[in-house]
Design a protein that fits this description.
This protein is of the alpha+beta class. It is built from 14 helices and 14 strands.
Length: 447
């Protein structure tokens, strides 16, 4: 009953014009304020959304640019890169260099397991290495695998686990070292051949000296036998014995002379050559003989340095000196190869021969190794003397000395313990056209 009365009163009040006239402006004001507030908040929200959208777009563009940069670096890397799922050992991503290393396209590699892509690699061995890597142990080794073309290739492989967020991947980096292996094998063959030739050359030198001494003794024996035969007179038995001794001694002397002549007739062909050019062409071989920790610097003279020399013999000298410098430095150091022209006044001060009017050319091999004591310096070049007790032949520097002297040059060694060594090879210089072609092609004996 009461509710009905209140409702009727409210309806009656609404129908009263005076109330409506009073309330209408207030209601309109309230509605307008609410509308304006809504417009304001909508505008503010739109502005905030625009800023957030701009920031999101910028961040997205930055991330996309970074992704493209990393992809470009990934694809252009000199080493092959393979990304594996450590759980199932499937290939998730590879770069172009990895595809070239195995001979597969990217699509082929992404569709097979790593065990299929690396024959004849033992699957059991590879699985063990991958398991150790997945456990956090980095792996580094060299492996011979078969290229898709059927060729065998040597790869240097590094495996490591990469953690990101809650997941992990196995990163495999491979480098094709087939050419390096071939070069190392060739260098080993050349060093073995060089060592053998050095031994034979020194043996030849020693044999020449021995034969020369024997020849002298045979001459004395022959003379004594001839005197003995004269004094024996009419005794035929004793005279026959002395004649037999004389006959055999003469035969032995003939054999000795033949050996001596054979030893002296080893020929070396001289030609006019530029030392700088020879070193530039020979430098790839020299670089391969050095350890990775050794830095080589080459400082060649600006001008051409012409000498009369046998190319093979001069290369042999340089290679010997480089190997000695390498061995003196061990795993690290700086090796400097220098060429320059030596004026006559400096040559005279060093005691070099003054008969070469064009002066001298010097090849310097400077190392930062252990250096040499005075006692070792006095023995450098003597046959069978070596400081490399485990693998030295004792012939290398002997042959170097001999070759340089045959070319009219001189080797000077400057060294102090713990201060490195400088090997200086002085060779007589010559100018273009100074020596005729006939003289340039004339061989010289090696002893």
């Amino acid at each position: 009953m009461i509710m009905e009365e209140l409702l009727n009163s409210f309806v009656l009040s609404l129908s009263t014009p005076a109330w409506w006239a009073t309330a209408m402006p207030v209601l309109l004001t309230i509605v307008m304020c609410g509308f304006l507030a809504c417009v304001f908040w909508i505008h503010r929200l739109q502005k905030r959304l625009a800023i957030q959208n701009f920031e999101f777009s910028s961040e997205f563009a930055r991330l996309r640019e970074k992704k493209e940069l990393f992809r470009a670096i990934f694809e252009s890397a000199d080493d092959g890169v393979i990304v594996l799922d450590p759980g199932v050992c499937t290939i998730l991503d590879v770069n172009q260099k990895a595809c070239e290393s195995f001979g597969y396209s990217k699509e082929d590699l992404l569709s097979v397991s790593v065990f299929v892509a690396t024959p004849p690699y033992s699957a059991t061995e590879l699985k063990k290495q991958l398991d150790r890597t997945a456990a956090g142990e980095s792996q580094s080794f060299e492996k011979l695998v078969r290229h898709r073309s059927g060729n065998r290739v040597w790869l240097r492989v590094k495996m490591q686990k990469v953690q990101f967020g809650s997941g992990s991947r196995i990163l495999i980096v491979v480098r094709d070292i087939t050419n390096q292996k071939k070069t190392e094998k060739e260098i080993s063959r050349l060093q073995t051949s060089l060592l053998h030739s050095q031994k034979m050359e020194v043996i030849g030198l020693l044999a020449g000296g021995i034969v020369h001494d024997l020849n002298t003794m045979y001459t004395i024996i022959i003379g004594c036998c001839e005197l003995l035969a004269r004094k024996l007179g009419a005794d035929p038995s004793l005279r026959d014995i002395s004649q037999s001794i004389l006959k055999l001694t003469r035969k032995s002397a003939i054999v000795a002379r033949k050996l001596l002549i054979s030893n002296q007739n080893q020929m070396v062909s001289l030609e006019q050559l530029d030392v700088n050019r020879l070193i530039r062409e020979f430098e790839p071989v020299l670089n391969q003989t050095l350890m990775e920790g050794i830095r080589k610097e080459t400082v060649l003279a600006d001008e051409s340095l012409m000498v009369m020399a046998d190319v093979c013999q001069l290369e042999r000298v340089i290679l010997n000196l480089i190997i000695n410098a390498r061995d003196a430095m061990g795993d690290s150091g700086v090796l400097t190869l220098v060429t320059r022209r030596v004026p006559m006044n400096e040559a005279e001060a060093l005691g070099l021969s003054m008969k070469y009017t064009s002066g001298y050319v010097v090849i310097e091999v400077i190392d930062t190794g252990c250096g040499m004591s005075d006692e070792i310096l006095r023995n450098v070049g003597k046959p069978f003397f070596t400081t490399k007790n485990d693998y030295g032949s004792g012939f290398g520097m002997t042959v170097v000395h001999q070759i340089i002297e045959q070319h009219g040059g001189r080797l000077i060694v400057v060294s102090e313990p713990e201060k490195g060594t400088t090997m200086q090879v002085f060779l007589p210089a010559c100018n273009h056209g100074e020596i005729s072609c006939q003289e340039a092609s004339t061989p010289i004996p090696t002893s």
